[in-house]
Design goal:
With 166 residues, this protein is an all-alpha fold. α4 runs antiparallel to α6. It folds into 2 domains: 80 residues, no CATH class; 63 residues. The radius of gyration is 23 Å and the shape is flat. 10% of the residues are buried. The chain contains 7 helices and no strands.
C-alpha cells in the first residue's frame, strides 16, 4: 500500500532522513580508526561495527520510526533525487559522444600497449599504480560522458538475444 507525503508526519520524515544520513556516514570514520593507536583487535572490531553494525542499526531504527511504507517513500525520494542529479542523459550530441569515446578508449588502448611501452618510457613501470588509477577514472568518466544510450549498447554486449538495428 503506497504512502503519500501527507500521511507521513514531517517531523518523523526529517528524523528518518537524519538517521539515514548519520547511519551511512559511519564508514567514513574507518580511516580514523585504522590510523589510531588502538590495538589490532579493537581496530578490527570497531571497523566491522562502523562498516556494518551502525549503518544497519540506524536503518532499522529509521524503519521503526517511519514504518515500512514510510521508509519506502523516503528511499524513493532519496534515490529519485540522486537519479535526477547524476544519471547520464539518454541522448548526447556528436561532439560529446566523440569526447566520451576518446575518454573511454584511451585507457583501454594504453593498458593494452603499456607492456610494450615500458621499454620506450621506463617511468610507466615505476608509476603503474598512478597510471592505473588515472585510466580507471578516465574510463568511468567516459561512460558518463557517453550517456545513457551507450550504457544500453554496452549492456547489449552481454545479452545473448540482443539484436542491432540501424
Amino acid at each position: 500500500m503506497p504512502v503519500f507525503a501527507a500521511e507521513i508526519s514531517k517531523k518523523r520524515l526529517i528524523l528518518g532522513l537524519v538517521l539515514v544520513l548519520i547511519g551511512q556516514s559511519f564508514p567514513l570514520w574507518i580511516p580514523v580508526i585504522s590510523s589510531s593507536g588502538l590495538s589490532d583487535a579493537w581496530k578490527q572490531a570497531l571497523t566491522g561495527i562502523f562498516a556494518f553494525g551502525f549503518p544497519n542499526l540506524f536503518m532499522v531504527t529509521t524503519v521503526m520510526i517511519l514504518g515500512n511504507s514510510g521508509f519506502e517513500y523516503l528511499k524513493k525520494k532519496i534515490f529519485g533525487w540522486f537519479k535526477k542529479q547524476f544519471a547520464p542523459k539518454d541522448f548526447v550530441g556528436r561532439f560529446r559522444y566523440l569526447i566520451g569515446l576518446i575518454l573511454f578508449f584511451t585507457p583501454v588502448l594504453f593498458a593494452w600497449a603499456s607492456p610494450y611501452l615500458i621499454y620506450v618510457i621506463p617511468d610507466i613501470g615505476i608509476h603503474h599504480v598512478a597510471y592505473g588509477i588515472a585510466g580507471d577514472a578516465m574510463l568511468i568518466l567516459g561512460l558518463f560522458v557517453l550517456g545513457g544510450n551507450f550504457w544500453d549498447k554496452l549492456r547489449a554486449l552481454f545479452l545473448r538475444k540482443a539484436k542491432v538495428t540501424f
